[in-house]
Amino acid sequence: SVAETAQTIKKSVEEGKIDSIIDKTIIGDFQKEQKKFVQEQQTKKSEAALPPWAYSNDEETIQQQILALSADKRNFLRDPPAGVQFHFDFDQMYPVALVMLQEDELLNRMRFDLVPKHVKEEVFWRNYFYRVSLIKQSAQLTALAAQQQAAGKEESKGREEDSELKETVRPKTPPVTIKPQIKSQEDEEEISTSPGVSEFVSDAFDTSNLNQEDLRKEMEQLVLDKKKEETSAVEEETADWEKELQQELQEYEVVTESEKRDENWDKEIEEMLQEEN
Q1: 17 by DSSP, 3-state: which?
Q2: What is the pLDDT of residues 120-141, one digit of tens each?
Q3: DSSP H helical ranges for the chain
Q4: Contacts for 23 with CB less than 8 Å, ≥ 6 apart
């Protein structure tokens, strides 16, 4: 039986049927389990993988920029610049690459055209993910700059509010002790000996002491004084009026005398002319 099994194995090896024999053994079962495990891990990774723009601050703009990379061949053919440190692990990024092939139809076409005619698979994805990392870094920098600017505005606002509060709040004045003024005995005596003055003049003015005869005389005197003032005012007005009349009469007399002189002068001129004739 050993010889027969050896011959059958020899024939199967020669005919290329060794895989069928191994599958029937324990080694075959182990290989099957290993393949199954690898496939399950790959499917889990592909299911857990997300596109590069997931959970970013501005997903829409980053998505548009990453999808625009597939329109240019140079993004896949050009290597990163010399001196740039870009770590790329193909096995780690392979699930993300599968997700991107599903999301981006242009990327799938570009891979079909370039791999492996112009570039290898690993180089293709390295160049692609290098450009993707640049887009993500620029988006992070813009978001950080916006956050710093907003924080600066808040700080300046807080300083302005603090300054306004300092201006409005005034410092408390320290308490001042008021010392009572001690009056001397001499001042008290002077105050007590001084004659009492009533608070109002009407209180001090006693109307019972007035005499009615005196009041009548004072009233008559006031009436006479008013009459005298009125007569003096009338006399002054008449005197002024007389002065004005005298001035007008004098002016009239001067005018009449000058007219008479003019007539005499005309007569003399006529007589002189007649004599010459």
Answers
A1: coil
A2: 999 999 999 999 999 999 988 9
A3: 2-15, 18-23, 26-48, 59-68, 74-77, 90-103, 105-114, 121-168, 185-193, 201-204, 212-276
A4: 32
23 to 3, 8, 237, 249: CA distances (angstroms): 21, 15, 157, 166
DSSP string covering 229-266:
HHHHHHHHHHHHHHHHHHHHHHHHHHHHHHHHHHHHHH
Residue 128: CA atoms inside 13 Å, Cβ hemisphere, count? 33
- Grouping H, G, I as helix, E, B as strand and the rest as coil, residue 28 is helix
Query: Token pair for residue 6?
Result: 């050896």
Tokens 């990392």 — which residue? Answer: 133
Dmax (CA) for the chain in angstroms is 206
Residue 83 zone, left/alpha/beta (φ > 0; ψ -120 to 50; rest): left
pLDDT digits (tens, 9 = 90+) for 170-187: 555 555 555 555 555 555
Residue appearing with tokens 């004739």: 277
The pTM of the full predicted model, rounded to 2 decimals, is 0.43
* Residue 129 near residue 93 (C-beta atoms within 8 A): yes
